[in-house]
Structures are given as structure tokens and as C-alpha cells.
Write a structure and sequence with these properties.
Length: 127
């Protein structure tokens, strides 16, 4: 659940919030090509229903904290968008990112760092 708690992969917590008032057993990604489910969040009280998987198990308190954190990240991202702030500030870059060749970030010490452009990117949008 680390990615979710760090503001990445907000999809599953957002879906859980959409089920407000319902008892959620687990949240998972379905891998259609493999016919598998990749469980990322498992309700501790219902873990026996999921099987033997033992990662991603969350107590009610931990799940509440994750959902509150998710709301905070969503508000932060929406506020940035409203301010026109589309600056590149990745929390993490995948080494397999398909945009690496055109991205303004360059790898530095095994991680990505902002490339020096000599100009400031500006975002335009219409209302
Ligand atoms: S390499 Fe560039 S496009 Fe890919 S995740 Fe990092 S910042 Fe985003």
C-alpha cells in the first residue's frame, strides 16, 4: 500500500470511497491476460475470504488513514491543476517509463532529475 499512501496509485482507494457505507472485503487489480487478481488492499477482518495472501492487509483504522490521505492528495492535485501548475515533479520515475526519451527529466545517480532547459514551461488552458 506504500504507493497509495505516497500519493501514487490512487485508483483503488478512490473506488473504495465510492462504496461509502458498504463493507469492503478487498481491492484488487484484475490481470485479464493471466486470469488473476492482484490484491492490494485487504480488510483485516475479512482476510480469510481472500486466501493466503498476507500483504496489503489493513485494519479499519489503517484503511481510514489511507482514505483520508487519498482525499488530501486529490485536493492537492486538483488545486495544482486549478492554479495552472503542471510542473514536472514526479514522486517516482519508473525505469520502464515509455516517455523517458522525450521527458524533460534526466537520470542522475540512478534517479531522474530535472533537465536544464533554459526556459520555463508554461501551461495554457481555456475555461
Ligand atoms: S521519466 Fe518523465 S515522464 Fe516518465 S515518470 Fe519520470 S518524469 Fe514522468
Amino acid at each position: 500500500m506504500g504507493h497509495m499512501a505516497n500519493g501514487l496509485s490512487l485508483q483503488l482507494p478512490t473506488y473504495i470511497m465510492g462504496l461509502e457505507g458498504q463493507n469492503v472485503v478487498a481491492a484488487a487489480y484484475g490481470i485479464i491476460s493471466k486470469g488473476e487478481m492482484d490484491f492490494k488492499i485487504i480488510n483485516e477482518e475479512e482476510k480469510e475470504l481472500v486466501g493466503r495472501k498476507r500483504t496489503g492487509i489493513a485494519s479499519g483504522e489503517e484503511l481510514d488513514e489511507l482514505l483520508n490521505t487519498t482525499v488530501d492528495y486529490i485536493i492537492e492535485y486538483v488545486n495544482s491543476i486549478h492554479l495552472g501548475d503542471f510542473s514536472i515533479n514526479p514522486k517516482e520515475c519508473s525505469p520502464y517509463c515509455i516517455y523517458r526519451d522525450i521527458c524533460r527529466y534526466k537520470e542522475k545517480n540512478g534517479r531522474y532529475a530535472r533537465k536544464q532547459l533554459g526556459w520555463t514551461p508554461v501551461a495554457f488552458y481555456c475555461i
